[in-house]
Amino acid sequence: MTFDEDMIAGLAREFAVFVRQDRTASGQLGRRSHPEFTVSEYGLLAHLAERGPRRPTELACHAGVTPPSVSRQLQHLETLGFVERLQALDDGRACLVALTDKGRRRAAEVQAARSRRLRELLESWPEHDVHTLAELLARFNSDAAKPSRRCSRAGEVGA
User: Fold this and answer.
1) In a domain, 7, yes or no
2) 80 within domain boundaries
3) Domain of 116?
4) Were 107 and a residue from 45, 72, 83, 128 both cysteine, which residue would form a disulfide, CB within 3.0 to 4.6 Å?
5) Residue 114 counted as domain residue
6) Higher pLDDT, residue 144 or 153
7) Which has more confidence, 67 or 89?
8) Where in this chain does the record put each HTH marR-type domain (predicted)?
9) pLDDT tens for residues 110-145?
10) What pTM was computed for the model?
11) Can you say whether the dihedral through the CA atoms of 55, 56, 57, 62 is positive or negative?
12) What is the DSSP string of the chain?
């Protein structure tokens, strides 16, 4: 199927606006939760809360950053007491990063605040439209999450 260039350009523009607004809101919610939080660090916490312990390389792939960058972020989160490193059971040389109890509480607090914000934004929408939006976003995200050349899924635990 071919798409009209204006339609694709408009969609790309709307995605960019959505991503900027979500990043700004995530940053504000994260800083309210902890003043030293960065948006990227909250993203790592949210991923760990959703997926469980992960290898640092998988977290780097998820975040779209280099392993040294994610290593610095994880060190900061570890210093704040939000994550801990565990030995991987399947490979004694590897480590997994897991949320601490404090990290799970913080991730849940920020997620609850994000849910409240989303509920407020959509309160005037008909329920059917919200349901349709959720279905379409899930379909889009599923297609977008397919393995890419940039990241190998071989390093994931429990993928």
Assistant:
1) no
2) yes
3) 13-146
4) 45
5) yes
6) 144
7) 67
8) 8-142
9) 889 889 989 999 999 999 999 999 999 999 988 887
10) 0.73
11) positive
12) ----HHHHHHHHHHHHHHHHHHHHHHHHHHHHH-TT--HHHHHHHHHHHHH-SB-HHHHHHHHTS-HHHHHHHHHHHHHTTSEEEEEETTEEEEEEEEE-HHHHHHHHHHHHHHHHHHHHHHTTS-HHHHHHHHHHHHHHHHHHTS--SSS-GGG-S--
Give the amino acid at 63: A
**CATH number of the domain to which 38 belongs:** 1.10.10.10
Query: How many domains, in total, are found in the chain?
Result: 1
Report CA-CA distances (Å) from 72 to 11, 58, 105: 34, 15, 22
Assigned token pair, 150 = 């940039």
Q: Is residue 128 part of a domain?
A: yes
- Greater confidence (148 vs 86) lies with 86
Q: Provide mean pLDDT across the span 89-104.
A: 88
